[in-house]
Design goal:
Layout (H helix, E strand, L loop, with lengths): L8 E4 L13 H11 L3 E8 L4 E2 L21 E2 L6 H14 L4 E9 L5 H8 L6 E5 L2 E4 L2 E4 H7 L4 H21 L5 E2 L4 H8 L10 H13 L3 E5 L6 H9 L4 E5 L12 H11 L11 E2 L1
Parallel strand pairs: 1-2, 2-5, 5-6, 6-9, 9-10, 10-11
Antiparallel strand pairs: 3-4, 7-8, 11-12
Helix pairs in contact: 5-7, 8-9
């Protein structure tokens, strides 16, 4: 049996993402990628423009002190990326690891809420991998990050089912109105919260909603990310193929060097089983 090649890791965070809390290092992540034999890695740092409402009883997910913290009006404003330092470090790592292709990138949160800002950012032409992600929903007129809202409000039962449907509909809107991002990151981001709450999620219960969202991604030419932080359910990869999805991107969503490329053997097998194959260019997406 032929061993599948390891894909590129197109979703990695370094010290330039605000939520790595000192755990990440671009150089260490590159060293890990070389050790694993990955063909390339993309540093897709968080660019979040949402001002999140964070109630006083929220879990301790955000800084309460320091340069960026939850303010007196219960608002958290994520800090910007220092792109000058980011690109300088990218070039330094390229010189240190000449055998590894190191891509620039960005993970742009809620791009359909900030299309002009995304267009301005991408006009520079400096970013090789551009992810669009949905970490937030509008809840009672306030923008809440899901990690906080789901657990603060103790969402379960029918409310959980409603949140899944709401989330998938918002992902479809993101695909339709989100501008020029290429890859849809972690379509199962809300499922992470369900797992953190100690429950399981069966996507078959929401097959019509998942299929409609996946069709929206396919219609707009987006690439679906197979995020290995929480292994994407194989049925979703199969549905992506069946609705006409053109390609798969692989991402560890690593926030530390040790997480780079985590689970990629299994992820590659899931993609192949659904009908996606590695391209001749080892740095490319896997295509149907």
């Amino acid at each position: 049996m032929t061993t599948l090649p390891l894909p590129s890791d197109d979703h990695v965070h370094s010290q330039f993402s605000w939520d790595t809390a000192g755990r990440a290092s671009m150089e260490a992540a590159c060293a890990e990628a070389v050790e694993l034999g990955l063909p390339s890695v993309a540093f897709t740092e968080h660019m979040d423009l949402v001002q999140w409402y964070v109630p006083a009883n929220a879990p301790d997910l955000f800084p309460r002190e320091g340069a960026h913290y939850v303010e007196e009006d219960s608002t958290f404003r994520p800090p910007p990326i220092d792109f000058d330092d980011y690109f300088a470090e990218l070039e330094r790592c390229r010189s240190l690891f000449p055998s590894l292709r190191i891509r620039s990138g960005v993970e742009f949160g809620e791009p359909h809420w900030f299309p002009d800002d995304l267009a301005t950012l991408l006009a520079s032409g400096r970013f090789e991998r551009v992810l669009g992600s949905l970490h937030s929903l509008e809840i009672d007129g306030r923008r809440r990050v899901l990690d906080e809202w789901f657990h603060t409000e103790r969402i379960d039962g029918e409310a959980e089912a409603a949140s899944v449907r709401t989330y998938l509909a918002e992902v479809a809107r993101m695909a339709q109105d989100g501008g020029a991002f290429e890859v849809v990151a972690h379509i199962d981001y809300l499922v992470r919260q369900i797992h953190k709450a100690g429950r399981t999620h069966d996507p078959r219960r929401f097959e019509p909603e998942y299929r409609e969202t996946l069709r929206a991604l396919a219609r707009t030419g987006r690439i679906l990310e197979l995020n290995s932080r929480l292994p994407l359910d194989p049925v979703l990869v199969r549905w992506w193929y069946e609705v006409g999805g053109s390609a798969i991107s692989f991402g560890s969503d690593a926030h530390s060097a040790a997480a780079v490329g985590t689970g990629f053997r299994d992820a590659a097998a899931r993609a192949e089983a659904a009908g996606f194959r590695p391209a001749d260019d080892a740095h490319d997406f896997w295509r149907r």
